[in-house]
Write a structure and sequence with these properties.
With 243 residues, the chain is of the alpha+beta class. It has 8 helices and 8 strands. Helix 4 packs across helix 8.
């Protein structure tokens, strides 16, 4: 069995390898660093839970890999490109990118609805980035589930996942499409207004707004292409007003 190192689209302390066995390609994810056994178990539990709920995630295989001395999982390899790479590419037309995002937000809305209705923290992704969504044609799959929950309520966790992922998406596709993307979000979450209100309240409803917005403007002046939480929630607020 020959293991080949894999590059990742996001920074990680872990190590990834691939190998082929017959017509099947596998990924070996080795957990390195603090709490590596806990992170391995957390990811295994999350993947199995998402798969049981009907969402696209890698399949876990019960295989022994020799000469690996840290916790690891053997997973199916999802062929495709990270959403980050897809949205940043100039080879795909914008209409196609927006169609993929519409599908993504509809899937997320369905998942978040299930999570909130059932009080299910495990149906929220706690490391949301466009690097952890894989595009394979029209299919969207999720990877990297080792981050731990850190919110008091499921709806708060779901709103934070959506807000964080939107920041990544706008950074990838370009700020000129901010309002268009947030209109897709507003439409997909039309039946979950309480979740969107949580997003707005956690950012624009905090005390000392003058100070927070001053810090936001200063940060954007220093980092011209940076997308902030205020960019997202202000645009979402305008989209909701137009509905």
């Amino acid at each position: 069995m020959k293991l080949s190192p894999l590059k990742t689209s996001t920074k990680t302390t872990n190590m990834l390898y691939s190998f082929d066995d017959g017509n099947t390609r596998y990924v070996v994810k080795c957990y390195v660093g603090a709490d590596n056994l806990k992170r391995c178990r957390r990811e295994k539990d999350a993947i199995e839970h998402w798969m049981a709920a009907g969402f696209d995630v890698p399949r876990i295989y019960d295989r022994t890999i020799p000469n690996i001395h840290v916790p690891y999982l053997v997973l199916s390899r999802i062929e495709g490109v990270p959403l980050r790479e897809y949205l940043s590419s100039r080879t795909h037309p914008i209409d196609e990118k927006l169609r993929i995002l519409e599908s993504l937000f509809e899937q997320m809305s369905n998942r978040h609805r299930l999570a909130v209705e059932n009080g299910d923290f495990r149906l929220v992704h706690y490391d949301p980035s466009s690097g952890n969504v894989i595009c394979s044609g029209d299919q969207l799959s999720y990877v990297d589930f080792e981050a731990r929950p850190k919110y008091r309520t499921v709806i708060e966790a779901a709103g934070t996942e959506l807000l964080t992922l939107c920041k990544w998406i706008i950074g990838d596709i370009g700020e000129e499409f901010l309002q268009t993307v947030m209109q897709l979000v507003a439409a997909s979450y039309d039946n979950q207004q309480s979740l969107l209100r949580i997003m707005l309240k956690r950012t624009s409803g905090r005390p000392f707004q003058f100070y927070h917005r001053w810090k936001d403007r200063r940060h954007k002046n220093r980092h011209a292409n940076c997308i902030t939480k205020y960019d997202i929630v202000d645009s979402l607020f305008q989209s909701l007003k137009q509905q």
